Predict the structure of Transcriptional regulator.
Amino acid sequence: MDEHLVKEVLSEPRNQKEEIQALQDTIYVIGGKWKLPIINSICNGNRRFREIERSIPGITTRMLSRELKDMEANKLLKRTVTPTSPVTVEYSPSDYCHSFADIILHMIKWGKEHRQRLRED
């Protein structure tokens, strides 16, 4: 465990209520089945709705639309509308979204290690 990070994030004395609220806020914003795969897709260059949809097996059009709106409201994505014919809509990660890139990388790493651990038993 990174002691510097522990001292930076956790108060002394510990405030469990504040810690739980922060965890719940994080889970609310990036939790669920689809948000992280959507972010991953967009960060991998899929910018248009159909590109994102095709890159995520099992997601429905309705669910993707709902999640994109929610993520835009939480300032994770930028939605750009270009008045061409037909109108072009593209999504891109915001700077704020990039602020938790390390968290996503750690989650991917943990997930790979977890899957490997399950195979070993």
Summary: The chain is about 60% helix and 10% strand. The mean pLDDT is 92. The domain at 34-111 is CATH 1.10.10.10 (Arc Repressor Mutant, subunit A).
